[in-house]
Amino acid sequence: MAAQGEETRTEGGRAGGVIEALRASPLPRVRWGLILVWFLRLMAVLWMMMGLLAWADILGLTPSPVPFEDRGLGAQAVVVYFAVFNLVAAVGLWLTSTWGGIMWLLALMSHMIMAIFLPQVVASGVFTVAMFGVLAVLYLVISWLAAHDQE
């Protein structure tokens, strides 16, 4: 019986030693603030390209079935809105400012809403709308994790 007690004590000691060693070892910690900065910068580059594509459409540099000047006033307003709004959101995202994230979410949501309810004005597929939704949720999750990250 004493041998069993010694084995149990030794096994418990080994397990306790492993746990203590794991606690003492410097495990790599996820730095959510840094991940958020990289996510915002990546989204800034993508939204900058989207804004520049809208300006290319306005200037007639992209192949389009209907030239910008021949479109209806509503369709022109939507293109100009995204040409300006996407670039402003991209600058705010690159600066990693709070207003940049808000502007980006507004641009993203307005694109999704127009793509769903006005598909003749904003040509986007189901995949694009789904990806924008995933990006919005990902941004909110990473922002929450970064805000609650303990130094």
From TrEMBL:
Keywords: Membrane, Transmembrane, Transmembrane helix. The chain crosses the membrane at residues 32-55, 75-95, 102-121, 127-147. It comes from the Bacteria. Pfam families: DUF6163. This is DUF6163 family protein. It comes from Camelimonas fluminis. The lineage of its organism: Bacteria, Pseudomonadati, Pseudomonadota, Alphaproteobacteria, Hyphomicrobiales.
